[in-house]
Amino acid sequence: MNSSVFPRMHVSLYVSDLTATVNFYTAFFGQPATKIRRGYAKYVLDKPSLIISFVENPGRVASNFGHLGFQVETVEEMEQRLAQARTTGLVAREEMGTACCYAKQDKFWVNDPDGVEWEVYYFHEDAEFNDPRYQQEYDAAPNSACCIAPAVITATPEILNIASTPFLLADSSTATCSTDVGCSYGHSS
After folding, report:
1. How confident is the model over 134-147, as pLDDT tens digits?
2. What's the DSSP call for residue 76?
């Protein structure tokens, strides 16, 4: 990392297939994972300032999670990220000039291999209304949270093959664990 911004947000998600997850997030974030070990991968990002890790545990993948997202600083950055996501085939849908969560925004959505939705958006200004399609969802389910994404139509996803980012899993036979420092797999990163 070139410059660290603190505090930084950390998120950890359970995933069902670490290889598919690493392929997806390498394409989505535009950088390789910072650390990969057996059943574990981590990305340390500058923009957005985020540490996100993935733990392979199919039994704990939650389908009712909601979504994650980040706001970009400029329209140009939004356009750049959208173009990159289009190039890698990640865009699930685009919503430009929409009024969602009482704000005018440009945004796009992607879905990771376990169905976790990510919203990337540029905030234009506050709004006094929601787009009618969102308002109908709110009225139908008044206890629901803001920014309800439309139902996703299930389709067979195209498998990403990021040949430039192969990774090796650490040999678990060299793992050492302690309650003070966690587990070490014979590598330092």
Report:
1. 666 556 654 444 45
2. H
The whole-number pLDDT of residue 72 equals: 92
User: Which amino acid appears at position 87 of this protein?
Assistant: T
Q: Quick count: other Cβ atoms within 10 Å of Cβ 9? A: 12
Q: How far is CA 68 from the centre of its chain?
A: 6
Task: Write the burial class of residue 37 (CB in 10 Å: 0-12 exposed, 13-18 middle, 19+ buried).
Answer: buried
Q: In a 3-state reduction of DSSP, which class is residue 124?
A: strand
Single pTM value for the model: 0.65
Instruction: Strands of the chain (E only): list them.
Output: 9-15, 35-37, 40-45, 50-56, 67-71, 91-100, 103-111, 117-126, 176-178, 182-184
Quote the tokens at residue 15: 């995933």
Six token digits for residue 124: 């234009």
Asked if the peptide bond before residue 157 counts as cis, ω within 30 degrees of 0, the response is no
Q: Give yes or no for a contact between 93 and 52, defined as CB atoms under 8 angstroms apart.
A: no
pLDDT, tens only, 101-127: 778 999 999 999 999 999 999 999 988
Which residue do the tokens 């439309």 mark?
Answer: 150
